[in-house]
Amino acid sequence: MNDDVSIRMNNEDSLAPPASLFAPRPDKKGPKTISILLIMGSVLMLLVGWGDIQNSMAEDFPDADLDAILGNYQNQDINITEEEYQEYHDDVRDDGAYSVRGYSLMVGGALVLSGGFLLFRLNMLGVKLSLAGSIIGLLGGFGGTWMMVQVSEKMLPEEVTKITELMSYLCGV
What we know:
Number of strands: 0
Strand content: under 5%
Order of helices and strands: HHHHHH
Number of domains: 1
Largest sheet: none
Shape: elongated
Radius of gyration: 28 Å
């Protein structure tokens, strides 16, 4: 090779600089950790969605759930009878709020679940599916809960409506 084209300086006899001790590598643990969190969150979305779908098909609100809800309200000195809450359930069911929230959470949860598994395999499609599922779940969940708040304003005490409204905001965040 010609001395005029060398990358070394004239009269430099030193060795080439050593290679980096820590070569940059793509991170594989981070996306896999995120995917595990996505899978666990999607299971929660699917369970809540399934519960809302069951409520949308039920004639009466389940007694076990009703006792827990009414007991919680009565501990806070809010008086609601079983008949009032059953009437609220009927109006929410007829309004379609359970269906909107349930089906959107089921579709969103399925997308997040499949996206989580794809992301675990380091497939970029998993990120897009998880994001789409999260947006669908957020919009449908918030919309369904907003519909429930509109019904509860007409039928239930103000405290219950406020609690439902605040929970919808907290779950939306």
